[in-house]
Amino acid sequence: MELTTQDRLVSGASCFLTDTGGSRGHYAMYVWRTGFDPNVHGCDQTDFLDWNSKHSHCFTHTWNSPDKRQWLWNTCNLPGREISSIFLADVYHKLKAGFLANDCDSSDITLLRTTLSEGHSRVTNLKIYALFAASDIEVSERHMVPYVVWYNDNCAHTDQEKFDGVAVNNEAYAAIKCSSDLNQRTTYLDRLQEIHDGAQKQRHGRLLTHFSVSWHWGQCNGQSQPFLWRGKTSDASHHMIDIFDSIDVQVGYTTFPQINERMDLAGLNYSRLLNKPSFVTFYTDKTEPCQITFFPQTCRWSGRSESNLFSVIDQFPQNGLSGIQPCIHYFRGVYSSGGHPDWPAHSNH
């Protein structure tokens, strides 16, 4: 399930491992099931600007074939903008079917093993997370973690074939963040904790956990909203940082000082104190209002391009975000899609 507009408003190449030498980037990137594909016959810039991701034939799977995966790996290896963490969607049904049948030899499990092995061998130090996005108040993602644990412990033949972590995109907290019923909020956190606890049940190696938060979840009516949970009084953002190994923050903006101000509200200093990665999430897909995305559309805001996205990222250090990495939302949506001159496909380099 992709991010909701409402929450955003308030929130062919070498098959060898590529290393550009020196320091690589450490960006994160969402990889949803489909993305815009200009290689589909008849799909042009008009289709791109329409961005009908749910129904248009111009959107194809992002990683189910060798050429689509190589497009992904080459994007991760873009010199100076390397990706070190990807959150990979469309794994839930594949893992669940294998888990329920206790079958490590199905075509879906074989595809996962191939994809994970390729990614780890072709992109230096890449971490690949299984992405779950039920996004319900029950936090159903907690029931999906055992599928990854089962796969890693039983189906992966080597460490290269394992998932490095589980990433969760659950936005249900936005609806209860100001609830007068404290039990609603603490129960939600209890369910998030189950994600972390479930990951620890992996027998061989450590399974990391990652969570996507919106910048305002610790706030209610513009004020910090601390509450007691498991012996500690903090706002929701701080509690969530405690639970997970890393977070990405949906800042819902493309300019400073809003970006850094919202990172601060989301607990940036606290995550730094705990030495936990905290990514700044930027949208590139089409949504409204236009100031929250880099999608090229008619807008009084200029700079809706990849080059401007990179320029904003390069300004992190002078805006109090030194050492903080960006998270691009999302692969081929529109980043690296090639559907527009301002958004080239990094399928070959």
What does this structure look like?
The protein is of the alpha/beta class and 349 residues long. It has one domain: TIM Barrel (Alpha-Beta Barrel), CATH 3.20.20. Helices cover 31% and strands 17% of the residues. A hairpin with a 2-residue loop joins β8 (219-220) and β9 (223-224). The longest helix is centred in the middle third of the chain and has 18 residues, at 182-199. It is globular.
Summarize the structure.
With 349 residues, the chain is of the alpha/beta class.
The helicity comes to 25-40%
Gyration radius, to the nearest Å? 19 Å
Largest sheet, in brief, is: 8 strands, parallel, barrel
Question: What is the mean pLDDT?
Answer: 93
Shape: globular
Any descriptors?
single chain, 349 residues, alpha/beta, TIM Barrel, eight-stranded parallel barrel, two-stranded antiparallel sheet, 11 helices, disordered N terminus
Chart the SSEs and their pairings.
Elements: H1 5-9, E1 27-31, E2 34-36, H2 45-50, E3 59-61, H3 66-76, E4 83-88, H4 92-101, H5 107-122, E5 127-132, H6 145-154, E6 165-168, H7 182-199, E7 208-214, E8 219-220, E9 223-224, E10 227-229, E11 232-234, H8 236-243, E12 246-250, H9 258-265, H10 268-273, E13 278-283, H11 306-314, E14 326-329
Parallel strand pairs: 1-4, 1-14, 4-5, 5-6, 6-7, 7-12, 12-13, 13-14
Antiparallel strand pairs: 2-3, 8-9, 10-11
